[in-house]
Amino acid sequence: MRDIKEERRNLEKQLREMGRQVDLMTIKIRAYLADRQQNPHPRHEEFIARVQSFNIRSGLSTKQLDTLLDSLQWKVHYASQAWRQLWENAENAKRMEAQAGRSYPEEGGKPAEPEKGKGSMYSVDKLWEVQQERLQALGSDSPETKGEFLKRIKKEYGQLASDRKRDEEITMTFDEQAGRCVLEKKKKN
């Protein structure tokens, strides 16, 4: 019994550490994209795969551990979309510089860091940025403030997560009609 409790504590520590690594990964990606020669590749795709394939053995599973894992996988899913957008933006900027006949500056500015005290909210802040970028691309203004967005996304996620099945995941899509990002459940691939 003592061994099971210890294994559960270790699993909880591991899940919480991976949660912290999500925020650090954003910093690593920004640093790498700003200066690819001085900063190591962030290996974010391996990290995403490791988190998404993480399983808790049935004998160790508890409601708390399952919830921690679910939250972590949700956080990584949405962070990975933001990371992909960062990567695409950097590649587009590099292409535009090359097309303009100028060399792409390999050294860049300091990577942006998450706001202190935001913790798990950092990924929701990233979702807000994704929505703003989509609206900007459409030439539209946001139909809601950042506070309204955060409140709506938290509420939508809570409703969807409460009756989600193991083979479903919560994804974010951009509804062009409504001019905002929405969450929905879909079967995992």
Write a structural description.
- With 189 residues, this protein is mainly alpha-helical.
- The protein is 60% helix and 8% strand.
- The protein contains five helices and two strands, in the order αααααββ.
- The chain has helices at residues 2-34, 44-52, 63-99, 121-138, 146-162, and strands at residues 168-175, 180-187.
- The protein has a two-stranded antiparallel sheet with strand order 1-2.
- It is globular.
- The model is unreliable at 101-122 (pLDDT under 50).
Question: Care to give the gist of this entry?
Answer:
The chain has 189 residues and is mainly α. It has helices at residues 2-34, 44-52, 63-99, 121-138, 146-162, and strands spanning 168-175, 180-187.
What topology emerges from the helices and strands here?
Elements lengths: L1 H33 L9 H9 L10 H37 L21 H18 L7 H17 L5 E8 L4 E8 L2
Antiparallel strand pairs: 1-2
What descriptors fit this protein?
60% helix; 189 residues; two-stranded antiparallel ribbon; mainly alpha; 8% strand; single chain
Which regions are unreliable across 5 or more consecutive residues at pLDDT < 50?
A: 101-122
DSSP E strands, number:
2
What kind of sheet is the major sheet? Answer: 2 strands, antiparallel
Tally of contiguous helical segments: 5
Q: Mean pLDDT, nearest integer?
A: 80
Shape: globular
